[in-house]
Structures are given as structure tokens and as C-alpha cells.
Amino acid sequence: MILIISKNQETTTNEVIKWLIAMGKKFVRVNEDEFFEIKVAQKRVYIKSYRNRFFLDEIESVWYRRGGIKFKKFQYNNPSVDSHMQEHQHWLEDYVIKTIESKRHINKQSTSAVNKLLVLEQAKKVGLDVPEYFLAENTDDVVLNRTITKPITGNITISAYEDYSESIMYTNIIEEKEQDRFFISFFQEKIEKDFEIRSFYLNGKFYSTAIISQSDEQTKTDFRKYNLEKPNRNVRYNLPNYVEEKVHQLMQLLDVNCGSIDFIKSDEKFYFLEVNTVGQFLGVSSICNYAAEKAIAEYL
Questions:
Q1: How far from chain centre, in Å, is Cα 149?
Q2: N or C, which terminus of the chain has less Cβ within 10 Å?
């Protein structure tokens, strides 16, 4: 049986599940609103929530998409007993997660949240071209109109900000200096691009798409500022073998075997920007007829 760890109303998960059903593969889906108890029956460990119940030895493969397996917490009146039992519970939870992650898998709950700063350092070590970057609390070292800033967080949205239900933090060019100091922020050299590339990576295979975003003022700095009236052209693209080999090395170092990877093509260079282990890929998969969601279902 396949274990899918995801969230409610997660579109990518739904599309992969359609393929699993078509292939006749048995699966169980765990969402973010479930809390599991760890139980034992006839010397077999199983976990159960309000909607799911399965033995660990039933699971043959795992797809970690988003969210995570969460556990019910129990408290005891005596502080000493409570402290001891919390550690007891911790090791049981650790056993469950590690047992699940020992199965054939697409990504892991324990390694899916990658640190973007560490990823950039590792990317440089394996020989990928990375735009120069730095952290700062002011704009003293910023070269105006030649430096960009963007979040280092995994989540680029802010909920309920001012009059907006949800706001997205895009990549922006720094056009003027700030007089005051601010919280540590990420700055990076602005690369003049020929076009952008998004590669969906799955266990050593690349599904790459060239995004022709540079000729549109709305999308030239960040293609995610979608122009719905005149969408960017997206075409299939093959990265050079040497770039794919270095990215494969990077993904192995990160202990991640699936993700969306962004590049900028500038003259003869391919600048690595970031890897998103839970990024969306359905759009480019559909436009370029890659059927990446089918590939995921087949691997599982």
C-alpha cells in the first residue's frame, strides 16, 4: 500500500491520486488535520486517527507531498511521570517516522524543509553557478538596480495582511536605499537573463521547461507575477548534461529525491537559484505534456 502525506484540497495530490486509481494501486492519504495514536495489535505497530488506520508493515512506498504526520500528545498529572512519558512518546514517534521513511519514497518528512542558505552553499560546492549573495541589516552594500531581494523562507505568502486575505512576497529589484536598519534580509546579484528554467526533478530524471519571461515588464524580474492576459511562453528544454549531473549531486547531498528547481540562463551560464521540495509543477507539466504526476504515480 502507498502512503501519501499531504494537505486537504492539495491539487497536485489529487491529480496523482487520479493516476493511482487508474493504475489500480491501493493508497491511504494523510492530511494535516489528523492526529495519530500509536497502537500495537498482535505485535504489529499501527497508527490511527479519526479517519485512517494502518499497520506500518502494510506500507510499501511513501510520497511526502506537504504537511506531516502528527501525533496526539498525552499529559500526566505528576511532573516526573509526565517528563518520562514524553520521552517515551518521543522515541515511539521517532520509530514510526523513521520506519515509514525507510520505505521506497518520494521525499521525506524529516528532510523536506530545506534551508535556502545552506542549499546555495552546497550548490556552489558541487560546482553550480550561483549569483553572488549576502545577508544584511541595511542597504549600505546594495548596488541600486543591480541587486534583488527575496524571502529565504519556504512559505512566500503572508495571510491576512492589511486588506488582503493573502499576500505573496515576490523577487524585487532594489531601486533606492533605506535610511533605517531592518531585520536581516537576503540580497543577491541581479542576473540579466535570456530566460528562466524550471526543472521538475524526480529521482535523477529532469523535466525542464524554458519560461520566456524576460520580454514582459510584469514578469521579467519574477515570472510568478503571472500575466494572465498574455501568458509567458513555456517550451520544453533540455539542460546540459553537466548541469543535470551537478544538480543530481546536490539533491543527493540534501537527501531529497523530488523537487522543483529554478535557473536563469544568461549567455553560456546556467545560474542556480533554488530548489523547492514542495513546489507546484502541474502548470509546466501540463503545458509541456510531461505528465509528471503520472511519473510520480508510476514510481510509487
A1: 20
A2: N
Res 230: pLDDT: 64
Stretches in the chain below the pLDDT threshold 50: none
The Cβ of residue 42 has, within 10 Å, a number of other Cβ atoms equal to 6
pLDDT in tens, 156-170: 666 655 665 556 777
Per the CB < 8 A criterion, the answer to whether 255 and 275 are in contact is no
What's the CA gap between 143 and 187, in Å, rounded? 10
DSSP-assigned states of every residue in the chain:
-EEEE--TT-HHHHHHHHHHHHHT--EEEE-TT-EEEEEEETTEEEEE-SS-EEEGGG--EEEE-SS--EE-----SSHHHHHHHHHHHHHHHHHHHHHHHTSEEES-TTT-S--HHHHHHHHHHTT-B---EEEESSSTT--TTSEEE---SS--EEEEETTEEEEE---EE--S--SS--S-EEEEEPPPPSEEEEEEEETTEEEEEEEE-TT-TTTSS-TTS--SSSPPEEEEE---HHHHHHHHHHHHHHT--EEEEEEEEETTEEEEEEEETT---HHHHHHTT--HHHHHHHH-
Residue 287 CA, chain-centre distance (Å), reads 21
pLDDT at 152: 85
The number of angstroms, rounded, from the C-alpha of 12 to the middle of its chain's C-alpha atoms is 13
